[in-house]
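--- STAGE predict ---
source: upstream dedup step, 1 unique chain passed
mode: sequence only
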Amino acid sequence: MIKANNPQLKSWIPTKADSDFPIQNLPFGIFKNGDDHTGAASAIGDFVIDLKTLYDLGYFDGLSLPKDVFSKNTLNKFIGLGKETTRKVRDRLSDLLEVSNRELQQNEAVRSSVLIPMDQVQMQLPVQIGDYTDFYSSEQHAYNVGCMFRDPDNALMPNWKHIPVGYHGRASSIAVSGTNFHRPKGQTIAPEAKTPTFGPTKRLDFELEMGFITGKNSPLGASIPVAEAEEYIFGFVLFNDWSARDVQKWEYVPLGPFLAKNFFSSVSPWIVTLDALEPFQVPGPVQDPEVLPYLELANRKNFDVNLKVFIQPEGAGETQVSHSNFKHMYWNVSQQLAHHTANGCNINVGDLYASGTISGPTPEAYGSMLELAWMGTKPIPMPDGTERKFIHDGDTVIMRGYAEKDGVRIGFGEVRNKVLPTL
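--- STAGE serialize ---
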């Protein structure tokens, strides 16, 4: 067992039973407070932990950390130190916060400078994302979309169960939770029209996804063996791959997504480490036919993470529209990374890889409005008397996720964004 994962650990900082951030989590992020101080942080309960201040006060002495590692406005340098070092930092935090440890607990002055209420800070994008790849790894989602646009007998393309399908997306338009954005414009074509028109999308959609962030470089020309892929994965975030479905339908042949996807995507601010999620690994679904040897993984594991989506119309309360789970993925993260690098593609610290829409086997577990409202034929009612086929201006979409086992709940916080009218 990783030391910081011990389910018996208790902290001297009170945490609610449904908190996303117990002592067993200790995620990493970047925060900014009122005086524009930006730096690295962890989280426990309702508090942000200022890692730079802890470092400056000597609480990380002996870990051989670079002097400025927690002063950066991204986590890239810290993550790039390697898992042996980042694990030691998380273990040290666990020690400091454990109920029997008095180092911080009895030092009120240090506590007040290190522990900052979450509602007093602004969370930032946690890493500088050099490259971003979006996969298409949920069988139910691929099947649903195939049924809509082809037919049930040909829902999955012939390659789908042989390769983890993906495409390279746009990193510059990925923003952190809390960032509002304007409805995108693009070319669309009416059902009976022969020529397209240009204007705001009428079919704005969310896609419920998870993302993993790499913490280790690989050289150009090298492939990452599937059995070693987890060594390269630092941690996970919630990911909303916003989509303009009507733009996508017109443009995606022959080269796939373009303007329908690159206008905006959003991530949760806290990176939950792969270490923290280790206790929540579960067997993945059976893969049939057998995969090629370079994708074959003994004891292939997925992660049991509950995922929920809410829509909040302007001036109204939020309504849950989806409850899915990360464990439903047909292709797991190790297979995704192994395939991504099979041709010698190099990866870098801070790169982001999204799972693709995560849809479960039942309608309430579908991960997009395209599926939930089934191309607009099954509108979803809202408490204010309106209904949703797709997302309206003024709507806020909220995604939350957590894993739970043996009395321990490891959460991700949320990714929340409001849709503004087209500019």
